[in-house]
Amino acid sequence: MSGNKMKAVGLTKYLPINDPDSLLDVEIEKPTPTGQDLLVRVHAISVNPVDVKVRGPKNRTESKPRVLGWDVAGVVEQTGPDCTLFKPGDEVYYAGSITRPGGNSEFHLVDERIVGLKPSTLDFAQAAALPLTSITAWEGLFHRLGLSSVEDANSGKTILIIGAAGGVGSIATQLAKYAGLTVIGTASRPESAAWAKELGADHILNHYEEFVPQLKALGFANVDYIFCLNSTEKHWKNMADAIAPQGKICSIVETDERLDLTMLKDKSVTFVWELMFTRPMFGTADMIEQHKLLNELAGLVDRGIIRTTVAEKLTPIDAANLRKAHAMLETGRSVGKVVLQDFE
Q1: Where is the signal peptide (predicted)?
Q2: CB under 8 Å to 66, separation ≥6 — which residues?
Q3: DSSP E strands: which ranges in 188-323?
């Protein structure tokens, strides 16, 4: 391959994942870093629901291959002229930006302000499972809901995590437990309930049943915080009933239906969205918070407090394995993350 070309997995048409043209092995130009960008040699990637959603069938075509992928672990190859946080050779992990080409390529450009130093105790595959879900969980808990990220600082407070066994839930459960909260997770299958308990959930509710009777059976009248990681509109009434007066609800799941905010008025409840792409998408003044939280998370990982959530590793990074990973996610029944490592 010529010096200015690189391998990637991309798409030109938005097709069902069982179509071999839904994701393709391609060769594209190797980019050059400018400004505060790092050029990262990609060692491992993981797949998230956002990949599946962006790739899903739609009546559109791309004139040149579109590269997806918003979880990367790799090594800094080159730094832009304005970089101050990293140097070539640094091992890093990050999620990137939804408005730029993704990381399913041999080399990838990313703004250094949303990159962290890889946890030293993890290999690249284990680290690649963490960024997107961890940024979402961290921002949701500590930036949107306003909880303290200090160990045991929120003792005596309760949080209901809807979808505790999913990608974000697996990290949020661990972080909330570390931060001192009583964690009540929801799950609907024995294996997902067991996974959430293993990660630190104190209690499990079934999210197909009303929350309040289940909470009362556990000795709770309500909960101080709710982190909704699954079907906002489906759980809206349950959340309005279960939240404590002056409590806070954060959701990461957009809805096609109108939500009745008036249901939260009598209790003076705060409702807030979390999207981990907001900071890079809008180039906010506090973008560097993602760099800081990823470094802080790496410290917690290296201390054995937060564990990675890899469920399956596929090698190499190519279109066939990415199609397989997308198909696994589309079942909606995967527990833990699917990671791909190494280009051939």
Answers
A1: none
A2: 10, 11, 12, 101
A3: 203-205, 223-228, 243-251, 270-273, 310-314
144 neighbors 250 (Cβ within 8 angstroms): yes
Spatial separation of the C-alpha atoms in residues 40 and 103, rounded to whole Å: 9
Identify the bridge partners of residue 341 per DSSP, sorted by sequence position: 44
The predicted structure's pLDDT at residue 1: 47
Q: Are 23 and 10 in contact (CB under 8 A)?
A: yes
Beta bridge partners of residue 67, listed in sequence order: 10
List the chain residues with pLDDT less than 70: 1-3, 333-334
Instruction: Find tokens 């990293």 and name the residue.
Output: 86
DSSP reduced 3-state for 90: coil
Amino acid letter for position 279: R
Q: How far apart are CA 290 and CA 310, in angstroms?
A: 21
Sign of CA dihedral 315, 318, 324, 328: positive
Give the pLDDT of residue 342: 95
Give the pLDDT of residue 133: 95
Which parts of 31-89 fold into alpha helices (H)? Answer: 49-55
The first and second tokens of residue 220, run together, are 């709770």
Q: How far apart are CA 32 and CA 39, in angstroms?
A: 7
